[in-house]
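Database export, one record per block. Field names are fixed; values are copied verbatim from the stored entry.
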Amino acid sequence: KFIALLKSYFMKPFFRTLLFAPLVLLFIAAGGNQEVPVNKLDPLSWKVLDTMHNVTIHWPIEKLEKRLPFMKNYLAAVTKSVQDHNWPGFISLCDKDNFTAQQKIGIPDHQYIYEIFNMDSVIAKDYSAQTKNIINAISKMEITSYNYVNNDGFRTFTFFGTCTFGNGKTEDFKFDVIALKRMLWIIGAVG
């Protein structure tokens, strides 16, 4: 009878609240189920960036991923957002101040993204519409090499690779990433 009485008390809303409230408070205090952003650097990786020497030749991306393991996930997120045409996801990895400045001067998202990759597509007319068509035609993106410069704490990566389009054609690209305040940000065009 005691067990039945105990069960009946805990089935009442008040007692259920008393039972589960500490668990809910622990979950909230621990920060919930927040994921660390893919572009956030841990303290050890930040120190590694400070000790890395400048790389001014195209080193294989595998060397970087071995030295900084988090970079594999970061570059996978960049690649996935491009291949999936998830432009808001890609823009979330970009420097927010630069993106806002570009929007203020009337640069549409697709043109902003296209110009980040420094592609050499020949665009004869209707530049904005063509940039949209080009980025939306990307079917595969492969990052193959990098450069790295640490100039008095101004840490910049340049990544190189090839995009493959739906029609099978390929085009080389490069884009820059800055490590700033323990975060990685893709740097967009200026002006």
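Remark 1: Residues 14-34 have pLDDT under 50 and may be disordered.
Remark 2: DSSP finds nine helices and five strands in the chain.
End of record.
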